[in-house]
Write a structure and sequence with these properties.
single chain, 340 residues, alpha+beta, 8-stranded mixed β-sheet, 5-stranded mixed β-sheet, 8 helices, 30% helix, 23% strand, binds 6-O-phosphono-alpha-D-fructofuranose, magnesium
């Protein structure tokens, strides 16, 4: 019998932390509870992906023109179903859907929140058994309750997020989230089917020795990024350089490692992606909220990610995030060499 008497489950934690939000009536708690349910359903499918016919391409392409893997579609469908079932979500913006998904039932029209998500980020890694993840961001709607949500509810600055998090389906499955009072990590215990508090009050190191960037795009990088990469590679005992290069190609996995160990993740503008590759509303905003809540930073090379007013739900931005001292050093190079 596994001893669980001192373990706090996600649901116990959510309810306990409800008091962080005076006047809360449990809407966000119920919404987060349903996120946990969907995460367990997707986790079960991800773990079996190699065994059942759920691998391989779904035949369609998502709005990004990327081949949709079946697990992408599975994750998108099950998160949407769980959000609708919660009764606390009015509409969803998803990487897998060009337009927002508006729930039109009476309960949803009166719901307080809208939800942005990348239901399965890093999906190109699915069939090579590399960690993938779900990333989500929750806003209180700005349109009046009692009517359907609109696109206006989704084009809010990241500073307006009420909650954000990610699920990493890796060697273990973890859910990491914030509601603006610190960052907490929960590890799924498959023996009881519960996310259990394993990483309370995560704080990311101010400095690190890991840099994560796809150096295959080096030729197209801004001069300041090229100079920063060379800075990471130079020998300097005092600042523990040369740093270590680690790049998994799955944002959730690269970010999570750097969050815990210290480091910087960079996806700058390239010729192929002149505005960067990562999407503001459902990748950069939630990751930035977590980074800042853990004592780190997240910018587009110039300003805080969280201060950017989105002009579309699939808008891309350059992304620099992680240990504060490393992000600041990168910005020094960008300001000097690129006049950013
Ligand atoms: P590249 C995965 O497709 C993703 O959206 C992120 O998870 C990841 O950080 C990035 O793209 C990897 O992009 O161009 O290096 O393969």
């Amino acid at each position: 019998m596994t001893e669980h008497n001192n373990v706090q489950t996600l649901n116990q934690f959510i309810i306990e932390r409800q008091s962080d939000h005076p006047g809360a009536k449990g809407e966000l708690s119920r919404l987060l509870h349903h996120v946990g349910i969907a995460a367990k359903i997707v986790n079960r499918a991800v773990n079996k992906a190699g065994l059942v016919d759920i691998l391989g391409e779904h035949g369609d392409q998502n709005v990004q023109g990327e081949d949709q893997q079946k697990l992408d579609v599975f994750a998108d469908t099950h998160f949407i179903d769980a959000l609708k079932a919660s009764g606390e979500c009015a509409a969803v913006a998803s990487e897998e859907n060009e337009d927002i998904i508006i729930f039109e039932d009476e309960m949803a029209k009166n719901a307080k929140y809208v939800f942005c998500m990348d239901p399965l980020d890093g999906s190109s890694n699915i069939d090579v058994n590399v960690s993938i993840g779900t990333i989500f961001s929750i806003f209180e709607r700005v349109t009046p309750r009692g009517q359907v949500a609109t696109m206006e509810d989704f084009l809010q600055e990241g500073t307006k997020q009420v909650a954000a998090g990610y699920v990493i389906y890796g060697s273990s499955t973890m859910l990491v989230y914030t509601t603006g009072n610190g960052v907490n990590g929960f590890t799924l215990d498959p023996s009881i089917g519960e996310f259990c508090l394993s990483h309370p009050n995560i704080k990311t190191p101010k400095s690190g020795t890991i840099y994560s960037i796809n150096e295959g795009n080096y030729i197209n990088f801004p001069q300041g990024v090229k100079k920063y990469i060379k800075y990471c590679q130079e020998k300097d005992a005092r600042s523990k350089r040369p740093f270590t290069s680690r790049y998994i190609g799955s944002l959730v996995a690269d970010f999570h490692r750097n969050l815990l160990k210290g480091g910087i993740f960079i996806y700058p503008q390239t010729n192929k992606n002149p505005d960067g590759k990562l999407r503001l509303t459902y990748e950069c905003n939630p990751v930035a909220f977590i980074a800042e809540q853990a004592g780190g930073m997240a910018t587009n090379g110039d300003i805080r990610i969280l201060e950017i007013k989105p002009d579309s739900i699939h808008q891309r931005v350059p992304f620099y995030t992680g240990s504060t001292n490393m992000v600041k050093k990168t910005e020094e190079f960008l300001h000097f060499f690129n006049n950013i």
